[in-house]
Amino acid sequence: MTSSQSTALSPSLLVAVGRSTEIASPPPDAAEAEKEWSYTRAPDALSARSAYQSRRGLRREIRIFLTNPNAIVGVLFLASVVVTALLAPLLYPGDPLEMVSRPFLWPGQNADYPLGTDSMGRDVLAGIVHGARISLTVGIVATALGLTIGIGIGAVAGYFGGWVDEVLVKIIEIFQTLPNFVLLVVLVAIAQPTVTTVTAAIGIITWPTVARLTRAEFRAIREKDYVLAARSLGYGHARIVFAEILPNALPPIIVTSSVMVAGAILMEAALSFMGLGDPNRVSWGSMIGSGRDVIRTAWYLTALPGLAIVFTVISLNLISDGLNDALNPRFSEERR
Amino acid sequence: MTPLMEVHDFAVGFGSAQPVKGVSFDVTAGEMLAIVGESGSGKSLTALGLIGLLPSHARKTGSIRLAGRDLSDLSERQWRSIRGREIGMIFQEPMTSLNPVLTVGEQIVEVLRIHDKIDRRSARKRAIELLDLVNIPEAGRRIDDYPHQLSGGMRQRVMIAIGVACNPKLLIADEATTALDVTIQAQILQLLDNLRLNLNMAVILITHDLGIVAQWADRVMVMYAGRKVEEGLPQPVFEHPYHPYTRGLLAASPRAEVGQHYRDGPLLEIPGSIVSSLHEKGCAFRPRCPDARASCGQAVPPIKLISDGRYAACPLVPSQFGRVSHDALVGA
Amino acid sequence: MTLLSVHNLSTQYSAGRGTVRAVDDVSLEIETGETVALVGESGCGKSSLGKSLMRLVEPTSGQVTFKGSDVTAMSARELRGLRQRIQMIFQDPFASLNPRQTVRAILTAPLKVHGIGDGKRRREIVEKIAEQVGLPPDSLDRYPHEFSGGQRQRIGIARALILEPELVVCDEPVSALDLSIQAQILNLLVEMKQRLSLSYLFVSHDLSVVRYFSDRVLVMYLGKIVESAPTAALWASPAHPYTRALLAAVPDPAKRKHAAPISGDLPSPHNPPSGCRFHTRCPLATDLCRAEAPRYRSFGENHTVACHYAQ
């Protein structure tokens, strides 16, 4: 019966194997299709549709991000801060800590110093422009440091599991139980308060957050079939970690990192405000700190650098939200 | 006999997509109607539409009448009085459809008390009866179990108990046995069959498994790309499938009962995969159809009466189909 | 010739309060060119067995021999060499492909890892296998989420076959696919088997697919193999009551409104029944079954059964 079955069948319905060359041939156009369908395979619905999608598909996240008005505002503001910081030596050559005019000039009083001068006669605008350099440098470098340590430790803990994981989690927990800011103050107080030590100290207190997040992502992704497939193909640990797991673990880490930059900027400001920053460099925090004594008479000395911090931090948070919206829905399409 | 539910030209759209393109059918009291189709056929969306559970941004057209009452324009509030009481539904995944923090008893009692004004004690008594009805052993003890303490088959029985708690006239089972093992699946199907006979309840069985349909359904409706393409009694449909899609589906299933084996030759394939677009002109199956001709691209073929109770949406007559021996197809 | 043999293999998982013996003292052999199906219900340990014999899951005890070399004793380095010769195809074509890699990257990586060919040669190999499994030529530079389930499974098959393995463990490769796509993939697997002279271990719960696709069937229940027979013989004369129940439970148009063959659920694998593990659901069970685990008995050519009362 079984053998007669295949012979009894119409050749037109029998799309037998062994014709894979036709399978691979490009789908015929509609007119041709009328005659020839019986011997070729129809273009796969999804891949036919996604031909359009894939041309621009790589930049889909960027497109989603750029259609988010809040994120655009954030990017524009942050970009202007970055440009200002880069152009600081051109805009205000010379040391912003130098006395340039009489003290307590209010904003608008003298066109040469649009934002006025402080109690020592230093130009406030020059301070804010140069302060942007310090705030951004500390924010970005400290975050990069925190990410490097955090991703490294989190990835090892999450990927290997077992006793390695237990030991690393204990270390993470020790760091997390210590109050962050106290630790930061102690670290800076032990070392000399320079931009480098402040940056390093902020990096050291922020990595445990990244490590926890990375570990959680790695633990989840480690169980996925495509990681099992990678193991079954004989891939080494390095390839599995860096090529298979890490790219899939990155979206939430990227989202967190923009908030971390904001956090680092705030920490640097707080340290400088307390006088624990680098005394030889002007930063937004140190400007607020030095304006604090005269806050009743010259409140603009605290308010102006304060606004710079507030807007920078808000713009980073807007960017973070935009990234979150852009990077995470990607997987909603995965399971249709 | 007037049908219990009449669905006329029911369609569902989302944005530019039209996953259900207009289906009409009816269900009589106590009948088991099977809707078969693959993913993308629109069968599950049709089911959700029948019970008013489509997402709010879905565009619905057409009419649904239950025992003469038009359900097309009900408010969410009115739907709530229909769901559970008039129409029950059970889903594929019994683990996620049960609330993990409530005991199964609490969940059944809740349903009973929403629809009927009864006190807790009699609701609990009724819940035990219901668990008994769905053949859960030691129902009096099992009622205080949490869903995770039950096996997959037991959970699906609890879902059925909830589905039939208020004596609905219609129960919709959406792939209700797909996640279950074959021996458990047989038990659940048998239970559904007994329940609908004892309670005179119509059942719409939504599945992709042709074997289940052939074994249990009174009537079968085949859907493809949002439309009904064939309808009839299971035996004639499976012995003499009319629509090329139905014929292809049957031919693509390995036939264990005749001992079909790979060493004797390949399975028949339906080429490609389901294509559904809004601006199609002709038959949606045309790109995969071995018998398609130019005329198939002109207009969507209407569903027409082939013989008594048998409908198909294909303009060709059997003599025009490829010389497929139906006897060979079904291994008669 | 025996390609793979498994002796008394056990695999335990620690789960919650206790351990689960997912695979319990299992022995089997796979001949070169043979397709052996492993069937059973979910939780019976069939997937664990497939993964254990590749050491994707470490077995607790027992021995696996592949072409004379002891897999269970292999070092990590030797194991990497074995990966070229035993490969796996996964059930879920949505979960088994890395969403952030193009098809080309997915298919090229195994060649790079095993140092096969230079850049140009690798490109040729990738393009050839893509054509063989029926992927359109423009698909290589796309991402997995742009494909339908059937096409994704073709990518998974291409990845498993690109190293030209001798044995492929297929873990439910068609159960997540629509019926019309299932036939395409089964035909492809048969075609590739003939083209590359492969042997398959085909893990499945779908008996009609197993009947079509396998040469020999192993029936598994709660971590144990209860019956082993050539496919045709198993369907002609199933000996174990569990096998008979499984076969009878397959929906069949000819058996309208047939009573469910066995009642009850699979017992918890945490605490398997004493004696014969099937005795809680078995219509033939006696005190002997409750007390004593049955030995394997020969029931015809290549046909063995673990049942005290198999007729």
Describe the structure in brief.
Chain A has 336 residues and is an all-alpha fold.
How far from one another are the termini of chain B? 34 Å
Oligomer: heterotrimer
User: What is the annotated CATH architecture of the largest domain in chain A?
Assistant: Orthogonal Bundle
Main β-sheet description of chain B: 8 strands, mixed
CATH homologous superfamily name of the largest domain in chain A? Answer: MetI-like
Structural class of chain B: alpha/beta
Question: From the alpha-carbon coordinates, what is the Rg of chain B to the nearest angstrom?
Answer: 21 Å
Strand content of chain A: under 5%
List how many beta strands of chain A DSSP finds. Answer: 0
Structure description:
The complex is a heterotrimer of chains A (336), B (332) and C (311). Chain A has helices spanning 2-8, 20-24, 30-36, 45-57, 60-66, 69-91, 124-160, 162-177, 180-190, 195-222, 225-232, 237-273, 284-291, 300-327. By secondary structure, chain A is mostly helical. The longest helix of chain A has 37 residues, at 124-160. The two termini of chain A are 40 Å apart. Chain B has two domains: 5-223, P-loop containing nucleotide triphosphate hydrolases (Rossmann fold), CATH 3.40.50.300; 225-258 and 266-330, no CATH class. In chain B, the strands form two sheets. An eight-stranded mixed sheet of chain B has the order 6-7-8-3-9-10-12-11, with helices on both faces. With 311 residues, chain C is an alpha/beta fold. Chain C has a domain at 242-311. Helices cover 32% and strands 24% of the residues of chain C. Chain C starts with a strand and ends in a 5-residue tail after the last strand. Chains in contact: A-B, A-C, B-C. Chain B: This is ABC transporter ATP-binding protein. Chain B: One of its GO terms (cellular component) is plasma membrane. Chain B: InterPro entries: AAA+_ATPase, ABC_Ni/Peptide_Import, ABC_transporter-like_ATP-bd, ABC_transporter-like_CS, Oligopep_ABC_C, P-loop_NTPase. Chain B: Keywords: ATP-binding, Cell membrane, Membrane, Nucleotide-binding, Transport.
